[in-house]
Predict the 3D structure of the following.
Amino acid sequence: SGQKVCYGDFKRSCYKLAYFQDLSRRVGFEEARQACEMDGGALLSLESEAEQRLIENMLQNLTKSGSGISDGDFWIGLWRSGNELSTSSPCPNLYKWADGSISPFRNWYTDEPSCGSEACVVMYHQPTANPGLGGPYLYQWNDDRCNMKH
């Protein structure tokens, strides 16, 4: 399940946010990607500052709707395959959009991506966390282990 919002003026006319307060319903990156594809979509590629702001506004509206939304990051469609670490490219350059988009837009939190075993990307949504060096953990991106549940 999820909340679907449609617009006429963006390249992707519809977006679907799926937020589960019930931790047992949260899924890993691959499960989330498959769920989007079964729904006829794809995990989100954020291709511009404007699109990033649009999604932030959608999440703010979701939290205002009285659903009592709490901490819980959101998978986005950015990832890197582990077998590319042997290349000479710097790690941040290895991240790709799962839907094939070539947009270079990135919104990493300070000191991210940390790389290592973390190869899939979430949009932070931790309103109750104390801010870190990069400010509140809200809407910036963080690489995480792909099997984490979000």
In short: The first helix runs from residue 29 to 38. The two ends are 14 Å apart (CA to CA). DSSP finds two helices and six strands in the chain. The mean pLDDT is 88.
